């Protein structure tokens, strides 16, 4: 997990990573977060005004309702800190999308898609300037829409999910399987001219173009922001996806595809925005000039 | 075109249909609407408080920006009436969705999809209680999402669009073509046990299940309201679509599929709501008890 101490003017005073003690159970993770927050807070000038937290699964502003990976069920926001200050929770991908919206590639754009492509794929739909999570918080599962309805079975059990063709993990896995190798990483597949690698990458690009055409026709975004590890591929990703997206759309323009601006800091910066909202300062953020680290800390 | 005079309490005092003089050009259609509105207004007790209009194409509250079918470009709302009263425009499908949301099957449900399946297919996405049209008003084109990415070419030029498999017109056309017949209508295909008819209907159902699974995973609606001529098929549509939608979703529940409540009056009633909004009475509608005609006037 990552954490930071972010000032009223957007200065990142401290930013650290710690392991997530998942194996020790749900309560141990909550306790680790509590300790992490106290540690970050102690580095500041007095008690922080608020805490923001980006968490996986189903989440409301004041409760981490459900997270399979971590075993959480209805953990109140206040459980995450020993400090007597306001806390606001957000969904992990949507909190990254909030940061891209307020501080990053989507600054000033009320309606866009933020699509981080990493080990998995999920999207943050920014609609009317805010992340939209659906009726019950399960929205944005673009990684599991059926792009090839009779396609391969995804780990989730469904057929032909975008994620099973186009996530970084899937690109590596599908190539390794076909080439009879082990543990080849997506970035190696992208840069290879081995015909099998070209084929696997082509299928990932095709899957992405179907998903983005679908999103465009349904939600008419001003632009699509691609992030996550796979977006580091740059033109090798953007150029063919753009070409195929344009080709799939007959009666409307394709929205521009642009790279995310905040890299791996999106979640932490979005959490900082939530922290300032918790503190009653929702107007903060739009004026911040954020120093973005050029290289990902983790892939 | 259809028009009506609707009172403050939701009473439909008058409701009529007139031909749309499309062949006479864009201005003739505007003039015909102007005449129709004056006629409806004259039947009331004094001058109406406002006018609402559901129009096709790209539309803002005060301008009909663009409609290919009618040849409109930037027609101001005020051009549609000779009366000196406020006018509000809405997109045709989204105005029907507004009516289903305020008065119909979606009453009290902030987030759902209204999907009328008729000659064509387009959806009204109700999000946070209001129809959402996307960044520039072109959203909701679920009829043209690529459900079978390598499928048949749609009249729009794209490949594998939902509409080209599952609209009433397509079901009739595809069956007629395969059976070597002419002009068979969708309702005949649905009720036939001819193996070719069963196959065509099966493909329509499959296309719908892919589209609705996609919508569900992206937008997490509370429910999906099916309307339009094809929804008159009742269980022959709802049952197999529901079964396949459930089957396509592995890690989340399928939202309930429910029939639209307002039939062919949805657009007119939605326009009435817009008219009352134009008149400064946005609160009207939720208390109305609407008499819905059981049979469609047009298919």
TrEMBL record, chains A, B:
Presence of keyword Repressor: no
Pfam families xrefs: ROK
Key words of the record: Kinase, Transferase
Keyword Endoplasmic reticulum: no
Gene Ontology molecular function terms on file: kinase activity
SUPFAM superfamilies: Actin-like ATPase domain
InterPro entries: ATPase_NBD, ROK
Entries under Gene3D superfamilies matching the protein: 3.30.420.40
Sequence similarity: Belongs to the ROK (NagC/XylR) family.
Matching PANTHER family: BIFUNCTIONAL UDP-N-ACETYLGLUCOSAMINE 2-EPIMERASE_N-ACETYLMANNOSAMINE KINASE, ROK (REPRESSOR, ORF, KINASE) FAMILY
Protein name: Sugar kinase
